[in-house]
Every structure is written in C-alpha cells, then in structure tokens.
Amino acid sequence: MTILATPVPGTREPVIARAARLWDELHSPVVGRRVAGTVPVAVVAGLVSLLASAWFVPSGLSLAYGDALSHLTIARRLFDTMTNPGLAQLGTVWLPVPHLLLSPFVLSLQAWQSGWGAALLGAGCLSATAAGCYRTAARWGLGLTARLVVVAVVVLNPAMLYLHSTALTEPVLIAGIAGTLAGLSNWATKSRRLSPGEVAVFAGLPAAIATMSRYEGWALVLAGSLFVALVAWLRDRSFSAVVTYLFGFAVVPAATMLWWLAYNWVTFRDPLAFVFGQYSASALQADLVTAGLTTKGDLPGSLATLNVAVATTSGTGVLALAGLALVVLVFTERSLRRWLFLAMTVVTYAFMAFSLYAGQAVIFNPASSQTTVWNNRYGMATVLPLALLIGVGTDLVSVGMGRVAPRLANVRRAMLAALVAVVLAGQTIWQLEDPAQRSLVLAEAATQYELKDGARSAATWLGTHYDGGHILLDEGVAGNNILPLAGIPLREYYLRSNDTLFAAALADPGSHARWLWVSDSDSDAVGAAIAEMPDSGSRYRLAFSAADVKIFREVG
C-alpha cells in the first residue's frame, strides 16, 4: 500500500513526507537488480558507525590494538617512506586490500594520527555490509521485517561498531563477505540466467576483496565455488553450465590469489613467504606453540575457544535467537538451495576452527585456560551467518502467523519484531554497562591500551619535541608499533622496513639519526646497536624515559 504519492517535480518535499515515502519504498518488491531500501539501509548503517566512532576515536580505544597501529603505518608507508614508496611497502605479514583501501584516508597526517582515517573507511565498510546483508535477505524472499532484523543483528553490535572504528582488517573482510553473499544470492534466486560476466562482477569482485583481506576469504571462495557448482547442477543438469558459472565466480578471486603468490615470489623470493616466512603467522606464533599455549592438535579445545569468541562478539542474545531460528528451519524449511546457502555462510567459522587446530591462529580466552584475552575478534565474521539465520527464522514464523490467523497477522508480526528488538536492545545495553568485562573484544582493547601506556607517552612526547634530524626505531618489536601516535611523517624514520638503510643506520647511528627510540625488549635492534657503540654516552643523552621506552637525542 502506498502511503504518499510521488512528489511533484520542482516542489520541495517535506521531511516527514519524504521519510514516509522512503519507508513505503522499502515494501517494494525486488525488481531486476533493484532492491528497494538498499540506499537508506546503507546510509543509516554508516551514520551509526560514525556516531560510535565519535566516542571510540577521541577515547583512544580505536588505536588500542597494536595491529591497528601497524595497519595504519603500512597504509601510510605506501606513499610516505624514506625508501621508495609503492606496493613493495605492503610486506607479507597481512594481505594487501585493507591497506590499499585505507591509504587514501591517511593522506592527511591528522587523519592518520587521530585514527579518523580508519574510522571513515570503517563507516563505509559497515554501510557496504549492511547493504549486502539487506540485499541477501531480500533476494531469498524475506519480508521487510526479517530484512531489517538481519541488518539490526549486524549493525547494533558493540563489538562490530568498535572494530569499524579501527584500522583492523575485519571491517574490510566482512564487507567483502557480505557483498559476495549478496551476489551469489542474486545468481541463485533470479529466474533469468546471469552471464558469467555478471557473476564475476556481482559475486567474484567482492569475493576477491575478501580474499585479499584475510585468509577466511580464501575459504569463502572454496565454499562459494562448491555452492555455485551444486546449484548450477540442480538447476540446469548440465556439466557445461557448472563449468561456466564456476569460472565466472572464481576467476577474479583466483587471479588475486595467483597475484599474491607472484608478489611474494618477486618481493621475498618465496611464493609461500606468507605461510612459512620469517614474519608469517606460523613463525610469529612458534614460541607460543612450543610453550603449549595454543590449541594446536586439540580439536575440542579449538572449538571451545572459538565458541567463546563467537559468543562474546555476537552476544548470547543473538545466539539464543539463532538457536530458535535453527529449530524453526529444521521443521519448516524445504528449500535445498536455501539450506546450501546457509551452510556456505558458516565457512568462516569452519576455517577459523581449522586454523586454531592447525596452530595457524591463536585465541586466548577462558576456554583456552588463559588469564588474558587475545584475538577474540576472530569470531566476528560469524555474526553474518547468525544474522541471516535469525532473519530466515523470523520470516518463516511471520509467514506461518499469516496462515494461521490472517486477521491478526500484522499484529503478531509486529509483536515478533518487537520481541527480537527487545532481545537485541537488551543485549546491547547489558554489554555497554560494563563493556570491558562483557565483551572480550572491548576488554582486549582496554588491556592493550593500558599495556602500551609507556610507549604512548613516549610517542606523544616525541611528536611534540621532534625538531628534525631523523629517528632510528625498530618497528619490528611489538611494543614499538606506535608510529601514528607520534604524528611524524614516516620519511623521518629509519625503520626495519627500510631494509638496507636501516642496516646502515644501525651500523653507525651517529651519522644517520639525531633521535634513537629504544625499548626494553631484548629483540630491539636499536638497543643492541647502542650497546655496541663505544662512544654512545658522549654522542647521545637520555631525553625521555617511560616504563619500557627510552628516547635518546644526539648531544648538541
């Protein structure tokens, strides 16, 4: 039913009338590529993200994670470095797309230092995620209430909002996953057969973004390929159709995977440097594995640890709703395609469980018998399948209500939506009352912020007192990844990423750098170089000292 007519051209539409018209448009059926409501949903999600960032960024929590600071540094390093800028500055520790997308947002030194550059990118990512989830729900025939429930589960999540204020890689990954799910939903549900090119554009491109953001994206491509092959066979019973659509979906992400192998081969002389290299996840976590602090080889322990991470990122209320929705699906859902699709969405959970079991990933929480918390954000991507499951369950119950008592259908649907809203709002309020204790992602952020207190103080002091002459700093030490906090252009630093220039500065600091940043870590190369300088005491004086950092300035 249309609430208001379309405004007369040339006249100014009242705000209330425009809002009512936009709400009416949300009820429009899906026609071709157009899914009414996509733009309003995306805009609202972006505004919610910015509002959350307006608290997280000034508080300093958006820059609490050491990884977030490192991502900001890599993005800035693409155009601001003592050595040649360019793609070689990406390194091999992390996949490149988050840094490539972040780099335009940190062109401003202020946006880089404050963290607002990352928050702006995060708002865009949450807009894309919300739009992708909304379109996915619409493509599978879910009503407006169920579509909005899916979006609300994703957007009204404190941990999700926090992560989208940071430079961590999860926002880009989740946006890529949501786009991929929307594209595959369009292909699987549309009566018109899409061309392989359309599949590549609407599903393959977002899959490539996920693939080059985190390695969960690689698992998504494998699961998506299996989904495409099965649906193509069920629909067309043609081997050629299977090959055609499989090629259309996988060609773009497969090309990005091959590019990453080639990049590692050319840059680091090893195509698998990201798996077995000096800075790979397995190498960085080797000491933890040796000390028995991981769940490697322990499948029950891996699953228990991951489940705690998922519970604290998604929330117990969301898990309860998803459990009820799964019960409804078991007894009412008869669509094989929909079951195959929902099964595909849980691939990120399966991949992370395998990574924990194989020792490629580490999560610390009470289930892993650790007194600290670490990497619980790895469970964040699981929010998407949980949201879609709740949405499908909500729609099935809503449709069932309409069949049982048509006259009271609208009232009961409103009551159902209100019940879901109360659960989500209650969970959010409960977490925000004590976020450091009730959300492990926020708890870890608070812990990381406190642990870096000395380094933060040192970075702030250096940014205020630096008067040129270059700085020698080993950013390979975990506690030293604070470069954005100082707000000094990276071309003023001799860093480990500068390779031969860094080695030359270590061999003769006095001829290269007026300032030396030395941490208490035994692996700090600058500290080792200072210890070997016979005249270090006469060449440099202590200018600042914090809990675990010392800053030296050249005498005179």
Question: What does this entry show, briefly?
Answer:
This protein has 556 residues and is mainly alpha-helical. Helices cover 64% and strands 4% of the residues.
Strand order of the largest sheet: 2-1-3-5-4
Largest sheet: 5 strands, mixed
Number of helix segments? Answer: 28
Low-confidence stretches: 1-5
Gyration radius over CA = 26 Å
Structure write-up:
The chain has 556 residues and is mainly alpha-helical. It contains 28 helices and 5 strands. It has helices spanning 15-25, 38-59, 66-77, 97-102, 109-114, 116-139, 144-155, 158-163, 170-189, 196-211, 216-236, 239-268, 273-276, 281-284, 286-290, 299-314, 316-332, 336-345, 347-358, 383-404, 409-433, 435-438, 440-451, 453-465, 483-486, 500-507, 525-532, 536-539, and strands at 471-472, 493-494, 515-519, 540-545, 549-554. The chain has a 5-stranded mixed sheet. Strand 1 (471-472), helix 25 and strand 2 form a beta-alpha-beta unit. Helix 7 (144-155) packs parallel to helix 21 (409-433), helix 10 (196-211) runs parallel beside helix 12 (239-268) and helix 16 crosses helix 19. 46% of the residues are buried. The model is unreliable at 1-5 (pLDDT under 50).
Q: What characteristics describe this protein?
A:
556 residues, mainly alpha, five-stranded mixed sheet, 5 strands, 64% helix, disordered N terminus
Topology:
Layout: H1 15-25, H2 38-59, H3 66-77, H4 97-102, H5 109-114, H6 116-139, H7 144-155, H8 158-163, H9 170-189, H10 196-211, H11 216-236, H12 239-268, H13 273-276, H14 281-284, H15 286-290, H16 299-314, H17 316-332, H18 336-345, H19 347-358, H20 383-404, H21 409-433, H22 435-438, H23 440-451, H24 453-465, E1 471-472, H25 483-486, E2 493-494, H26 500-507, E3 515-519, H27 525-532, H28 536-539, E4 540-545, E5 549-554
Parallel strand pairs: 1-2, 1-3
Antiparallel strand pairs: 3-5, 4-5
